[in-house]
Amino acid sequence: MNMAPPNLTSAATAQAPEAVAPPAAHADTIQKFLATELAKQRRERIANRAMAISFGLFVLLVWAIATEGGFVHALIIPSPFDTVEATIRLMRSNILWPNVWVTLQEIFWAFLLGLGSGCLLGVGVAMFAGVRATLYPYLVAIQAPPKIVLAPIFVTWFGFDMASKIAIGVVMSFFPMFLNTLTGLTSVDPNAIKLMKSLTAGRWKTFRYLLLPNALPIMMAGVKLCWTLAVLGVIVGEFVGASAGIGYLIYAMNFQLDIAGVFSLIILLSLFTLFVYQFIEWLEGRIIFWKQL
Amino acid sequence: MPTGLIEGSSLSKVYATATGPLVALSEVSFQVEEGEFISLVGPSGCGKSTLLSILGGLENQTEGVLLLSDKEHDGPRREIGMMFQTSVLFPWRTVRQNVELPGIILGLDRRQQAEEAERLLDMVGLNGFGDRYPAELSGGMRQRVALARLLAHDPKVLLMDEPFGALDEFTRETMNLELLRIWEKTGKTVVFVTHNIGEAVFLSDRIFVMTPRPGRLEGIVEVDLPRPRKAEIMRDPRYSELVFDIRGMLGVDH
Fold first, then answer.
1. What rounded mean pLDDT belongs to chain A?
2. pLDDT at residue A143 is higher than 90
3. Which of residues 142-201 of B touch A (CB under 8 A)?
4. pLDDT bracket for residue A23 (50, 70, 90)
5. Is residue A5 part of a domain?
6. Nearest C-alpha of chain A: how many angstroms from B1?
7. Which among B135, B138, B174 is the nearest to A293, CB-wise?
8. Distance (Å, rounded) from C-alpha A257 to C-alpha A259?
């Protein structure tokens, strides 16, 4: 205690990392050390990427040898070359794009409605005791059975068009969004609540300035789950009963033993889902920037 | 005898728990004068945090009367500011935005609050850190920001719940000196919860010693050390005497 300076401005600045200037005599050594450290990190990054790429190429090679060498029948697994050929054939034909368009619309609406209803109900259950008491038991109960079982009924109810697929997508994607919103809004530092209370903040201000931003990291994890499940629900819906869409096309081509076509559709669908997923992750980094500090 | 700024008489608090009623505070009576520095000292479970919550209007007493400026006090008020053991800074707001938060919540003038935030950051020694985020600061610096935020809406009474309890010994002592300097400059009334007896003696005008059997005010110790106080005051034999008196009251020495 006797060493503590009475004027604390200097003590404060000394704590700041960048305020500590390296002594001139050591500047060179530090510079060199940093340079080697950076080079090491770069080498590691390149090595990691090389390993990942090599593994992918290896799998591709095994796939090519197994199929082209006649170890696996083409009706079970088509060769990579056949798959590429089928992809080009599909893209040039007039059957792919109309079906893609249908599925895209279905996924869009399923994702949007699942996201929206999940957020809304999550906020309602978290913020209003009445809503919580009334709805929470049912919202949890409907989560228990696998929702896929609803697919045939939804087709009966909503028909073979887009509505039934959207409905299945919503039912599947709603719950993770709901649960993550609820969890996010209720996992708060109790002291932060006390602070807001002591500042006479009401329900709305507490939500706006504390609960919502505090919930965003967990909610964004929900958005990613919501996206994957919306796609899953729509495709399953198309399997069950549809007259158009990627799921329908996969089902039909499988029936016609066009396995190469099925493979190329699966790959296209995977790439699309992954691309949007990456976009959501990028968005996540923007929205909850403070997690990366 | 003049009535104090805060006056509690026979305050009791009972919580209903699954295993029956839990008495957190029993028959606590006291007065706090304007501008006084009071510490609540005692082991965990002695009800000092409960008492602070009641003083802050976050909870209500089960029995007894609590007056603030001669008026009944039973809810949060602008005149009272609270600070906690954790800094409770919002990580998505910059340091400056965190200090401006009370003004926003209370709907105060934005321009004037922005100037105030700048002045306060200067006062707690964080000049130039306004645009940083809390994650970029050390624990001590975060408590400095919390201190600036505590003062932002100019409350009359500062309620501090072990504000430096999570800091290392050196930082804590630095913060104590800082707090005294600010208190002397602003003339606020402070109620400071701690389980560190030395800290309480160093800071306070009077110390409320509390014991957990259950939640009783064992006694009030007048700290007659001269002000302004610097670290050297700890060499004063009177300082050690007071510390040992309080230890005795708490039954630490056997």
1. 89
2. no
3. 144, 153, 159, 170, 173-174, 177-178, 181
4. low
5. no
6. 31
7. B135
8. 5
Residue numbers of the domain that contains A55: 24-68
Q: Does B88 touch chain A (CB under 8 A)?
A: yes
A41 falls within a domain: yes
Apex A68 CA angle, A64 and A70, nearest 5: 125
Residues A97 and A62 in one domain: no
Nearest CA to B205 out of B182, B229, B174, B185 is that of B229
Q: Are residues A59 and A168 in the same domain?
A: no
Asked if B84's CB is within 8 angstroms of A194's CB, the reply is: yes
Same domain, A171 and A261: yes
Q: H or E segment at B67?
A: strand B63-68
CATH number of the CATH domain containing A274: 1.10.3720.10
Is residue B9 within 8 A of residue B192, CB to CB? The reply is no
Three-state secondary structure call for residue B10? strand
Structural domains of chain B in order of their starting residue, each with its CATH number: 1-75+191-254 (3.40.50.300)
Q: Quick one: closest CA in B to A6, which residue? A: B177
Distances, alpha carbon B82 to alpha carbons A94, A110, A204, A281, B136, in Å: 68, 46, 21, 37, 23
With respect to residue A100, please indicate whether it lies within any of the assigned structural domains: yes
Among B78, B88, B135, select the one facing A200 at the smallest CB separation: B78
| ipTM for this model | 0.92
A18 in a domain, yes or no? no
| Chain B residues with CB-CB distance to A190 below 8 A | none
Report the domain count for chain A: 2
Same domain, A64 and A95: no
Same domain, residue pair A160 and A223: yes
With 70 as the cut, is the pLDDT of residue A12 above it? Answer: no
Nearest chain B residue to A188 by CA: give it.
B88
Residues A206 and A147 in one domain: yes
Does residue A276 carry a pLDDT above 50? yes
Contact B53 A13 (CB under 8 A): no
**Residue of B80, B88, B97, B113 to mutate for A, most A C-beta atoms under 10 A:** B88
Task: State which of A15, A39, A68 marks the end of a domain.
Answer: A68
One domain for residues A205 and A234: yes
Q: Residue A39: pLDDT above 90? A: yes
Q: In this structure, are A43 and A102 located in the same domain?
A: no
- Listed as own residue / partner, the contacts of A262-271 with beta carbons closer than 8 Å and 24 or more positions apart are A263/A77, A263/A78, A263/A83, A263/A86, A264/A83, A264/A84, A264/A86, A264/A87, A264/A90, A265/A90, A267/A83, A267/A87, A268/A87, A269/A231, A269/A235
* Contact call for A15 and B141, based on CB within 8 A: yes
Q: How far is A26 from chain B (nearest CA, A)?
A: 26
What count of CB pairs under 8 Å joins A to B?
92
A16: which chain B residues are within 8 Å (Cβ-Cβ)? 129
CA neighbours within 13 Å on the CB side: how many for A173?
A: 34
A290 contacts in B (CB within 8 Å)?
A: 91-92, 133, 135
pLDDT of residue A25: 64
Whether A10 has a pLDDT exceeding 80, the answer reads no
A3 has pLDDT over 70: no
Q: Does A202 touch chain B (CB under 8 A)?
A: no
